[in-house]
Amino acid sequence: MKGVLKLWLAVVLSLPSVVSWAQINTTYLDSIPFAKPKQTKLFYTFNHPVLQSIKIKPTKRKAGTYSPGAAMKDMGADLATSLFGHFTGFTTAREVIWQLESRLVANDKRFNWDIIVLCPGELYKEKEHQHDPATGEDAVVTVAYVEIFWEEGAAGIIKENEQIIGSFKVVVDPAADSSLFETYYDVFQDPPRNLRTKARNSFYQQALAVQFREYAVLGKFRGEEFALVSNGVSHSMWFFVNDVLACVFYPDLDALPVHKDDRVMPYLLLDPDIPDGKLADWYRLAMFSRFLYAEVNY
């Protein structure tokens, strides 16, 4: 199984690479805010004539359920053949390909997206003794533990109305890759995004300053070259289309142990003259990045 996973990873890492450019210019982008009404719910509302809200549904994790045949059918011939053409089966007792599935549920179902990410990992099953205080009896139960190896590479697709509109690979810790670091140098220089708080508790202040694990997404979206690079200090996501910066997303920081009074709302840095149709895509791509932000730091 390890040989199969190494082959799978080698093909994933052969997906589109990047080229270098000059310093990134953000002066032409305006701030477009939107809202996350409740701290504990991944539900967002937008000032848009049609796309008014999106809920990020909890991720389903499945071990080895995506067969090579299903992958060939759903992911498109080129990507699927590359990723799964040499697979004869998926799982052993412990080593698996994890299939992560989530859905962006909009107020209008035409804007729903399905996200599928495949990543190697392991499934641990252990027997544990548990005591039921209600009955006073002991029982032996099997408990499953999920481990996902993001550092070994991942790949996925975005579907809209059952049509594949995006395919990508995920690279964690992109600053450790010399080519990615050089290409996206300005992204990694984005300064820390420290929450303002009146609280004097030093432990709370340290918790707010935590750095999240960074990731990059490289692939295609609606037929164009696409890249997303995150900064774990500023908690920002930078989007490039055909090697040109198109959008910067600053998400909510509710994943931190932030007090209610210290919360911040998410916003985009985006061309203010963008038409509503493309704006709907950027709202959803921001939610896609928010999904990955949570998964990579799971």
What do you see in this structure?
With 298 residues, the protein is an alpha+beta fold. Helix content is 22%, strand content 36%. It has seven helices and 14 strands. Strands 1, 2, 3, 4, 5, 6, 7, 8, 9, 10, 11, 12, 13 and 14 form a 14-stranded antiparallel β-sheet that branches. It is globular and about 65 Å long. The chain starts with a helix and ends with a helix. Mean pLDDT is 82; it is low at 1-13, 17-22 and 66-93.
Instruction: Give the distance, in angstroms, between the N- and C-terminal Cα atoms.
Output: 25 Å
User: Mind describing the biggest β-sheet?
Assistant: 14 strands, antiparallel
So how many helices? 7
Share in β-strands: 35-45%
Taking all residues together, what is the mean pLDDT?
82
Helix content percent band: 10-25%
Order of helices and strands: HEEEEHHEEEEEHHHEEEEEH
Inertia-based shape: globular
**Tally of DSSP β-strands:** 14
- The helix-and-strand class reads alpha+beta
Unreliable sequence segments: 1-13, 17-22, 66-93
Rounded to the nearest angstrom, the radius of gyration is 21 Å
Structure in a nutshell:
The chain is α+β, with helices and mostly antiparallel strands. The chain is about 20% helix and about 35% strand. It is built from 7 helices and 14 strands.
What features would you highlight for this structure?
14-stranded antiparallel beta sheet; 298 residues; disordered N terminus; 14 strands; alpha+beta; 7 helices
What are the SSEs and their pairings?
Elements lengths: L1 H11 L17 E4 L9 E3 L7 E4 L3 E4 L4 H8 L1 H8 L10 E12 L6 E20 L4 E12 L5 E7 L2 E10 L5 H6 L1 H4 L13 H7 L6 E7 L2 E8 L4 E6 L2 E7 L16 E4 L5 H21 L2
Helix pairs in contact: 2-3
